[in-house]
Write a structure and sequence with these properties.
588 residues; mainly beta; 4 domains; 21-stranded parallel beta sheet; seven-stranded antiparallel beta sheet; 2 helices; 49 strands; 14% helix; globular
C-alpha cells in the first residue's frame, strides 16, 4: 500500500514537471514569435505607407513637369497605382505654386508639400519649337533634342531627330475671329481687383466647326500677378455659363507692363458650332489690388458679334459699357502630319494625327499612317498647340529696355580686324559685323534694320556676364554666315538670344522668298527666335535652339539643344523655368 502511494506521488511529480516544461516552451515560443509577427506586420505597414508617400511625391513631380513643359496645371491632380491613390491640390501663393499631395494606401496616408517659383530668365524646353509653318528637313540634317511643332514635320533624305517629335493641331495663319489692335487702346479694362470685376469675359461666335486651338489677348499687367486660366465657356442668358469647353494657362511671365499680344494654347480642342455664342473668359480665382491684369479694349463696338462682361465665374456679371469690346483673337486648328524622319536614338516618341514613312524607337501615337516601322497607337489624341516661351509682350519689353539705355541714329558697321565693345542701346539702322571684326556686348541691343554677321567675325558677351545671357531684338532680317560667330561670356550657361520680328518666309513672302533668319555657318552659343518668319539652315550650319514660325534645314545642319537652355538667365525680361523652393513631407 505504501509502495503504491509512493509511485502515485512520483507519477504526479513527473506530470507536473512535464506541464512546467510545456508552459515554459509555450512562453518561449510566444516570446520569439510575437516580435517576428510584429516585424512582419510593421514591414507590411511600412510598405503600404511607402506606397502612399511615393504616390504623393509623384504628383509633385507631375506638377513641376507640367509647369516646365508649358502644359496646363489644373487645380487638382489625381493618380492611382499599386493600390495607392494620391490627390494633389494646387494653389497660387503669390507668384509661386503650392502643391499639397496626399497619398493613401490601405489605412495609411502620407502628405507632401512643394512650392515652385519661376526663375528670372526664359525657359526653352525644346531644341526646336515651331508654329504652324512647320518643319522641313532634307539631306542629312538632324536635331539633337526634342521637336514640338504646331504644324507638320516632313523630311526627305536621311534626316533624324534624337528626342521626341510632336506635330500638334496646327493653328491657321488667319484667326477665325479677331478684334485687332496695336499701340495704346482706347479703354483700359482692369479686372481682378474686386469681386464685382474679378473675372473678364468677351463673347464671340465662330464661322467654322474646325477645332479651336488657341486664343490671343491684347493685355498688360500691373505689379506681379499670378498665372491665371483662360477658358472657353458656354453662353447662359447673355453671360458666361457653367460649362468649360476648353482651358489654357495665361503665363504671367509672358505678359509685360506694356500692351502686347499674348497667346494661350488650349489643352483640349473642341469643335464649336458656327453662329452660336461662346465666351472667352479670364478666370482669376482671386483678387489683388496691387497685382492684376488690364485688357486692351475698344470703345466703338468694333467687334459686332459679341460684348464685354465683368464679374465672377459662377456668380453675377455686368456690362461696363455696351460699346466696349476686348482686343482678342480665336484660332482654329487642322490636321498635323509627320513624315519621312527617323526619331529617337534610345526612346523618342512620335505624336501627330497622321504619321507616314517614319522610323521611331519609341511609340508612334497617331490616328492614321502608313509605311512606319510600327503601327499607330491610337490611345492618345492629337496634341494641342504649344505657345511660344517668348511673347510679343516680352519682345516689346526688351525693345523698351534697350532703347532706355541710349539711341544711335545711324547704322553700325564693323569690318577688318576691328575689336570694340558696345554698351546696350537702340540702333536705328543696320548692324553689320564682317571680315574678322570682334564685337563685345555689355548690354542689350535693339536693331531697327538688319543684323548681318559674316566672314570670321565674332559677336560675344563680356566676361562679366558670367552664367547670365543677353538678348538682341531685330526688326529686320538676320543673316549669320560666320562659323562660331556668336559666343557667350565664356561660361557654358551663357548664350545670346536673337529675336526678330520679320515676317519673311512666314506670314509674308519677301523678295526671292528670303527667310527672316538665314544661317549658313555654325552660329555658336545662340538661341534664335522668329515668331512670324521662317528660319533657314543650310550647309553645316547649327545653333543651340530655335523658336520660329517655320523652319527649313538642309545639308548637314545640326541643331544641338543644351540642357542649360531650360533656364536662360537674364537680368530682366520674362521669367524662366520653374524651380523648387521647398519640397518635404508634412503632417496634417
Amino acid at each position: 500500500m505504501n509502495i503504491h502511494t509512493h509511485d502515485s506521488q512520483r507519477g504526479a511529480a513527473m506530470i507536473t514537471l512535464i506541464l512546467f516544461f510545456l508552459s515554459v516552451s509555450v512562453i518561449v515560443l510566444v516570446g520569439i514569435a510575437t516580435p517576428i509577427a510584429n516585424q512582419i506586420r510593421n514591414g507590411a505597414d511600412f510598405m503600404q505607407s511607402k506606397q502612399g508617400y511615393v504616390a504623393a511625391d509623384a504628383l509633385n513631380e507631375e506638377a513641376l513637369y507640367r509647369l516646365n513643359s508649358g502644359r496646363t496645371l489644373p487645380a487638382q491632380l489625381v493618380l492611382s497605382f499599386s493600390g495607392a491613390t494620391s490627390t494633389a491640390a494646387i494653389t497660387d501663393v503669390g507668384n509661386a505654386k503650392q502643391v499639397i499631395a496626399e497619398g493613401i494606401a490601405g489605412a495609411f496616408n502620407r502628405v507632401s508639400r512643394s512650392v515652385f517659383s519661376q526663375d528670372q530668365g526664359v525657359s526653352i524646353n525644346y531644341g526646336l519649337q515651331v508654329g504652324n509653318g512647320g518643319v522641313t528637313m532634307s539631306g542629312s540634317s538632324s536635331i539633337v533634342g526634342n521637336v514640338y511643332s504646331n504644324g507638320n514635320i516632313t523630311a526627305t533624305g536621311s534626316c533624324s531627330i534624337t528626342g521626341s517629335a510632336v506635330a500638334a493641331v496646327a493653328t491657321t495663319q488667319v484667326a477665325d475671329q479677331e478684334n485687332f489692335a496695336t499701340g495704346a487702346p482706347a479703354v483700359n479694362t482692369t479686372f481682378g481687383t474686386a469681386n464685382a470685376s474679378q473675372d473678364f469675359g468677351q463673347s464671340f461666335i465662330v464661322s467654322t466647326s474646325t477645332a479651336v486651338a488657341e486664343a490671343s489677348l491684347y493685355i498688360r499687367k500691373v505689379g506681379s500677378p499670378a498665372n491665371t486660366t483662360v477658358k472657353i465657356m458656354n453662353n447662359n442668358a447673355g453671360s458666361p455659363g457653367s460649362t468649360v469647353l476648353a482651358s489654357g494657362t495665361l503665363s504671367a511671365s509672358s505678359v509685360s507692363t506694356t500692351y502686347g499680344w499674348v497667346d494661350v494654347a488650349f489643352a483640349t480642342n473642341p469643335s464649336l458650332t458656327p453662329g452660336t455664342t461662346y465666351w472667352l473668359v479670364i478666370d482669376n480665382g482671386a483678387n489683388n489690388t496691387s497685382s492684376y491684369y488690364v485688357m486692351g479694349t475698344t470703345n466703338t463696338n468694333s467687334y459686332t458679334s459679341g460684348l464685354l462682361r465683368l464679374g465672377r465665374v459662377g456668380s453675377t456679371w455686368s456690362t461696363p459699357n455696351s460699346s466696349h469690346d476686348a482686343f482678342f483673337k480665336i484660332f482654329v486648328g487642322g490636321v498635323s502630319v509627320i513624315s519621312g524622319v527617323s526619331v529617337g536614338g534610345s526612346g523618342g516618341d512620335v505624336r501627330a494625327f497622321t504619321v507616314n514613312n517614319t522610323t521611331a524607337s519609341g511609340v508612334i501615337y497617331c490616328q492614321a499612317g502608313t509605311g512606319n516601322n510600327k503601327s499607330c497607337n491610337t490611345t492618345q489624341s492629337t496634341p494641342s498647340p504649344l505657345s511660344f516661351p517668348v511673347s510679343d509682350s516680352n519682345i516689346q519689353a526688351w525693345k523698351d529696355e534697350a532703347t532706355a539705355l541710349g539711341v544711335r541714329n545711324s547704322s553700325l558697321t564693323l569690318g577688318g580686324s576691328t575689336s570694340t565693345t558696345t554698351a546696350g542701346m537702340k540702333i536705328v539702322g543696320n548692324l553689320d559685323i564682317g571680315s574678322s571684326a570682334d564685337l563685345t556686348l555689355t548690354g542689350p541691343l535693339y536693331v531697327t534694320g538688319d543684323l548681318t554677321i559674316s566672314g570670321s567675325a565674332k559677336l560675344r558677351l563680356a566676361s562679366s556676364y558670367g552664367a547670365s545671357s543677353e538678348f538682341i531684338v531685330v526688326d529686320g532680317k538676320v543673316n549669320i554666315g560666320a562659323s562660331g560667330a556668336i559666343q557667350g561670356s565664356g561660361n557654358s550657361n551663357s548664350y545670346v538670344l536673337i529675336a526678330t520680328t520679320s515676317q519673311c518666309g512666314g506670314l509674308t513672302t519677301c523678295a526671292s522668298n528670303v527667310p527672316a533668319v538665314a544661317v549658313s555657318g555654325s552660329a555658336g552659343a545662340v538661341v534664335l527666335v522668329s515668331p512670324y518668319g521662317r528660319v533657314d539652315f543650310t550647309g553645316s550650319a547649327g545653333a543651340k535652339a530655335v523658336i520660329s514660325y517655320g523652319m527649313s534645314l538642309s545639308g548637314s545642319t545640326s541643331l544641338n539643344y543644351e540642357s542649360g537652355l531650360a533656364d536662360i538667365d537674364f537680368t530682366s525680361g520674362p521669367s524662366g523655368s520653374w524651380s523648387v523652393d521647398s519640397w518635404r513631407e508634412i503632417t496634417q
